[in-house]
Design brief:
This protein has helices at residues 7-15, 19-44, 49-60, 66-81. Helix content is 63%, strand content 0%.
Length: 100
């Protein structure tokens, strides 16, 4: 595998930051990633709550074992049928649906 030519620059930039700055940057990157996944979900046009949560899980946790994802899907489907859940909630920092 070829070395990443930007890795040394990134490492130097991270070392120059305080722990609090690194934590804030990490939080901002997580929020940006979540916002991108919700934008993808908006563009996918999935209306079914179970389909929506499956889409989110697939993109946010690709390493999650399929059996675990299926357990979550079954539990949420039961909660949906019982009226205890009505679908995933968009985090406040993501904002409204994005037109695609």
């Amino acid at each position: 595998m070829r070395p990443d030519p930007g890795r040394a620059l990134l490492d130097d930039a991270l070392r120059a930051r305080t722990p609090a700055e690194r934590a804030r940057r990490g939080q901002a990157l997580r929020e940006q990633g979540i916002a991108l996944v919700w934008q993808q979900l908006d563009r996918a046009g999935i209306d079914d709550p179970i389909g929506r949560v499956a889409f989110l899980l697939d993109r946010m946790y690709p390493e999650m074992p399929p059996v675990h994802r299926e357990q979550i899907r079954r539990r949420l489907a039961a909660d949906l049928a019982a009226g205890r859940w009505d679908g995933p909630r968009r985090p406040a920092f993501v904002g409204d649906a994005v037109e695609g």
